[in-house]
Amino acid sequence: MAFGFFKKKKKEENKTPHYDPNNIRITDIRAGFFLEYDAKTWEVTEEYEYDWGDNEFSYSFLLRSASEEIYLSLENEGELEIALTNKIRLIKLGEDLDDQIAENKRPPKTITYEGVKYYRDNESPGYYRNTATTKREESIEMITWDYYDDDEEKTISIEQFGEREFEAYIGHYVEEYEFSNILPSSEPPIAL
């Protein structure tokens, strides 16, 4: 599952292709697309939707290459921000972190991971779903907390589903020009 970093992408009413086929951007990707990043070809294998209420949606994507997988999330609030993350075990962020969250209803204000200090920036309740397997009305309630380092180049996200189910992601921000050869799927888009 992806992270809930980015909350402001507006819901699209129509899931037919909405991109210029001569100028496909990273913001146009959907499950089934292919792209190049870091000298590797990646397939967009899954798409996740986050519903933050007030008609605010965000999407994240699972990308797979021949040897690894990463998650990609986009935010565009006047300026495009792109994050790539990897899923990590919550215990790596603190041995008793799950207990702290259960007791305090949120994680600590700061987390140190691999010598880098991260600061909690926001808390966002919402609903999550895998767009290929879950109907919008069957979305799962969740909450996410986002953390950033001093330079706001690295990020950690903690997601909670139910009382004691957690997922954690660590990553960094990248630039749109780092992605190339974005190609759509030959399959028609899934109607949501």
TrEMBL record:
Instruction: Give the source's domain of life in one word.
Output: Bacteria
- InterPro entries listed in its UniProt record: DUF4178
Q: Domain DUF4178: where?
A: 31-175
User: Can you name this protein?
Assistant: DUF4178 domain-containing protein
The scientific name of the source species is Bernardetia litoralis (strain ATCC 23117 / DSM 6794 / NBRC 15988 / NCIMB 1366 / Fx l1 / Sio-4)
